[in-house]
């Protein structure tokens, strides 16, 4: 073995040992993440790791991920466009299906224009890095999704974080910044707490201090507002200062994301958003499925009605229990447990009874606030929720 090979092997072994030690530390702290193997379509009832469960851990809020109408639309898309897009949107990957979907999404959220992205993570990265840079400032709620935080870091703008929903703290930051461009970024529905951001008050601050507001409506689109049109519709907001992002793999049941706003905004993203420019377009068959999904979201209010009924039932039946539900009117219902080991143990005990509810631990949530994140879907029944609440009360 040459000296070069020997040095390379020692370096590789050193890295492997360091990584193994880090994994052991994760295990000892109850922070090791593990994947489960799903062998059925995404539904309220699933087969995971060879066993049947009722799942309370999916973001398929409207129960559309396995809807046969969406599947039929996807099959039609395969027949017309094939399987892959084959190129980026700006080369030869922008199909008529993509174009039609962008127009439909813009009309649905009642904004001038929309732009498709492959994922919500890529959408946030693309928007923030295209609109903010050195000399600018980005202001973020401390409980924002990781994609918003990473986007702010990548942008190289000054990154200012404020305590959750602390508008006075945000105002002080806005007052004291010398930045030429100011961008406030926020989850519309916070993914681990389920509460809704005070969007009207945030917009008022943005108007007062000449800032723009990026709203990540990943968990509000399809669920909130008339006909599921999202958080802007929920609050009745229209403003050119708003940059609207929503994902299409949660309530919409398929995959991808979009950004909507003014004509100038969207055209600027086409020119400057690196996560849009430098990646292959999503398969057109998904756009076909999403066009069908939009129709269902708009027309079937019973799905949102059922969600509201299930949320009310869960809260009513867990009142006075050992563990406290955090205040949330959305399908995300966090049950605060506290310690990592306790949350993992409770999740495991529920799994033994055929109920899948994930334990969420730091760093996803703050230290000491490990929880079970109960996600409800229109595909659940009242009996499903009753079975969960009975098991939790028994465990308590």
Topology, element by element:
Layout: H1 3-28, E1 45-48, E2 51-55, H2 68-81, H3 89-93, H4 96-109, E3 113-117, H5 120-131, E4 137-141, H6 146-155, E5 158-162, H7 167-176, E6 182-187, H8 199-208, E7 212-216, H9 231-235, E8 242-247, E9 257-261, H10 263-272, H11 274-277, H12 284-299, H13 302-317, E10 324-325, E11 332-338, H14 340-352, E12 355-356, E13 359-360, E14 370-375, H15 382-395
Parallel strand pairs: 2-12, 4-5, 4-6, 6-7, 7-8
Antiparallel strand pairs: 1-2, 3-9, 8-9, 10-11, 11-14, 13-14
General description of the model:
This protein has 396 residues and is an alpha/beta fold. The protein has two domains: 34-62 and 301-395, Aspartate Aminotransferase, domain 1 (Alpha-Beta Complex); 68-299, 3-Layer(aba) Sandwich (Aspartate Aminotransferase, domain 2). The protein is 45% helix and 16% strand. It has 15 helices and 14 strands. The strands form three sheets. Strands 3-9-8-7-6-4-5 form a seven-stranded mixed sheet, sandwiched between helices. The chain has a four-stranded antiparallel sheet with strand order 10-11-14-13. The radius of gyration is 22 Å and the shape is globular. 43% of the residues are buried.
